[in-house]
């Protein structure tokens, strides 16, 4: 009998020992199953030290002015054929920030809209006209509205010789060669006949400088005046 009780005791102790080591509860802790997953509706949150922003940069592409000569239209007359418009280049930049400080810039895309040129029809036909002046009738082919100042060879930066090698003085004027070609003959009311024989740093566009032997005693005051190309 005692032998049977010993066998039963050994079996009982073996059973309890096996269940003890396989139990999920050890000292109040639980061991999850290797196949256990989180519930679907449980959010997963992460924290990144990087943030990003898209920035748009726009560059204006200026239009150009294109002239077309028209031999059937009188010189000095212009007609706008197309106004044209400026183009633009748009760049999208991705800016990366690390803890609020700019870290990197990356070009994401570029879109370019080409400029459309402004087109102007410019007359080149020479039409001679007659003008009665205090010095007698003159034949001219172009009239210009200009602002006329005056100078002499003693002014700052001036000397006795002009840009084309003429002696400075009465009858020689400084012009912008893009407006009045050098060596052109010109009539200026209140001044008389002249030759476009000089240039100047301040003489740009429709500005001319009337040459005198002595600007202080010339009696000319700067003003707008119509001049005539002969």
Computed CA radius of gyration, to the nearest angstrom:
47 Å
Strand-residue fraction? over 45%
Whole-Å distance between the termini? 151 Å
**At CATH's second level, what is the architecture of the largest domain?**
Beta Barrel
Helix content: under 10%
DSSP summary: helix tally: 1
Secondary structural class: mainly beta
Counted beta strands: 16
State the major sheet: 6 strands, mixed, barrel
Quickly name the level 1 CATH class of the largest domain. Mainly Beta
Q: State the shape.
A: elongated
Q: Order of strands in the sheet with the most strands? A: 11-15-12-14-13-16
What is the CATH T-level topology of the largest domain?
A: Barwin-like endoglucanases
Mean pLDDT: 84
Number of domains: 2
Series of secondary-structure elements, N-terminal to C-terminal: HEEEEEEEEEEEEEEEE
Going by CATH, the homologous superfamily of the largest domain would be RlpA-like domain
Descriptive terms for the model:
230 residues; mainly beta; Resuscitation-promoting factor rpfb fold; Barwin-like endoglucanases; 2 domains; six-stranded mixed barrel; three-stranded antiparallel β-sheet; 1 helix; 9% helix
Note down, in words, how this protein is organized.
With 230 residues, the chain is mainly beta. It has one helix spanning 2-22; strands spanning 25-26, 29-30, 50-61, 65-74, 78-82, 87-98, 101-113, 118-125, 129-133, 136-140, 142-151, 172-174, 185-188, 192-198, 207-211, 223-229. The protein is built from 1 helix and 16 strands. A hairpin with a 2-residue loop joins β9 (129-133) and β10. The longest helix is centred in the N-terminal third of the chain and has 21 residues, at 2-22.
